[in-house]
Batch of 2 targets.
Target 1
Amino acid sequence: MTEPQASSRNLRGRLVRADVIVRHQLFEANGRSLGPLPDVRYRLSRELRNGRWVDRLDIVQPPAVLVTYPDGVRAVPNPFAGRGVERVDGEDEVMVIGADGKPRPVVDDEVKRFFGWSDEKPRSSIGSFRGPGGSWLAEAGREQERRVELERQFGRARDRVRGLDRYVQQDPHGRLEVLVAPETVLPVEIRGEAADGGRIQTSLEYDFHPGLGHVRRRLRAEHRFAGAGGGVTEVEIINVETTGEVGP
């Protein structure tokens, strides 16, 4: 969530709040739907606190626990769900706010990578994309910085497809292909294939907010695991509002 970062030279005070809705639907290996899971809802904020940017996700409607019964899998409420997570820019430590309200360090790198808060390379190339698509906010005017980050990971674009720059990364873990809008340097499609046969295809949509930048309005990811089932995940960011002073 920290790349690209909002710059304090352009944005001051409490910057932005938004609602995040996450929807999941699971499928068995034979393609049979297990049905949609209950929505998960968060309240997202990015604020300037004591001169440093802080990203925070507060859980409004926590994820359910999947329990297998004789007649199938059911989602049941999770009484141990935490209240949220937060991270201060420039710090490696990610804090999770537990059900008791107390902050604790997140020790699981997979959790950090989910939020784009880790430089560690994941176990599969499918999840290794840490460029602008890993962030919910991309500040306007920082296109060159985003291009440098893309080329650092992928090298120069191979060619153009449907007017989009195509970046490709391939290693023993698999292959990752990203299509990027040249004018904003933001990804609109990500395709990954792991060496074990797992696949993922992600599409991204953005809204431009004057004085703020490009907010990732919608992300849709279809994934299939080798020899197992798969699913569809949609992440929607709505009700974006700036709650502090925004300006040069």
Note: The first helix runs from residue 109 to 114.
Target 2
Amino acid sequence: MIHVKYRIAFFMIYCAAIVGDIKYSLTNLPTKDSSLVYLVPWTGWIDDKALTNTFNDLGIGANMGFYTAVAYKTEFKDKAQSIRNDIISLQVATILTFQKFEEKSNEALKKLHVAFEHISDDREGEAHIILLDEVGSLANDLAKEARDIELQASTGRDKVSSLLKEIYSSRGELKNKKNEIEKQEQRLQAQKARTETDLRNAQAAAAESQRQADQARYNADHEKRKKEEKCEGWKFLICTLARAINWNLVEEYEIKERFHRREAEHHLARAREQQQKAARAFSQLQQLANKLNEAREKIKSNENIAQGLQDIICNYNGLTVTLQTFSTAWEDVSNNCADLKKRVTDKAAVAAPSFQKQAITLYAQWLSLGISSKSVLNEIKPIKVIEETITPKDAQNKIKKD
């Protein structure tokens, strides 16, 4: 059942092709409004819309790649700009080439129209050969032009691939650097935590020594006042003995005070030292954090640039494939011209339906390629101008905006 459906579909297409052929003749050639798909099978796979879309995406990608390189302050700024310049150059070359495609197509159509108008006239046979030869040479030249921009696109793609490999090779080195910084950060965090613990302990010890010294001073003063109060009203001798006895106790408290004061000063000095260590550790941690952020940003930027380059390579590949369809089409036109030229002086061959169909197809080929070329020229968009002195902040804003 499936095979039957396929046969019916094929038969309908075949009939449509015959009907399409019947309405054209050497005196009633196709026009720009004609449906050329049955006359020129490859008109269905020359996608001028895809070509212009790819070119436009390529231009956007080139600008985004440059903005990314600037925004993240990478060393790839110059190379990103070089890639962008290559794409601009390719676009200019393509526009010039397709202008030539359109111009030469119009020229060829005029020559073919003249040739086919009196193709059955014996006296015009040699003139037809010359015209077909000229048209064939035009097709050869245009095929070469198409291959040239195809080659230019391939060269540009290879350059992008080279930069992508460079980024990939540096990615491992960047990650190793980031991991090493993270390890240093962990060690410093542990050192800072220990230093802060020592600082708290030293401050607590200093406070305790200060408290004990204050207590000893209080005790000494208290004993002085107590004994002096008891001496009031005593006899001089008894008071003198009492003072001598009690002064030892006061002196002992004062000795304790001096000891605890020295201990407090020692602990405070140690606390200041630990505080300085903690400050240094914090400063080092801050520096490492900055380095770590830079490393992470660089890795992120490299990933973004790598992704952008992959997109550019995909666009280059699509562009190359589409350009190949044009170069192949021009080669097909050239071969068709060469074949017709061999038979144009044979009156019997010219009268045959196969010759007339081939001649109409040749005309339709030129017409189709001219239409496609004009479509490309109408749809292709110039790459946006950018400032080479743009700041990282402006570049980031451009990325968000575009």
Note: The first helix runs from residue 2 to 22.
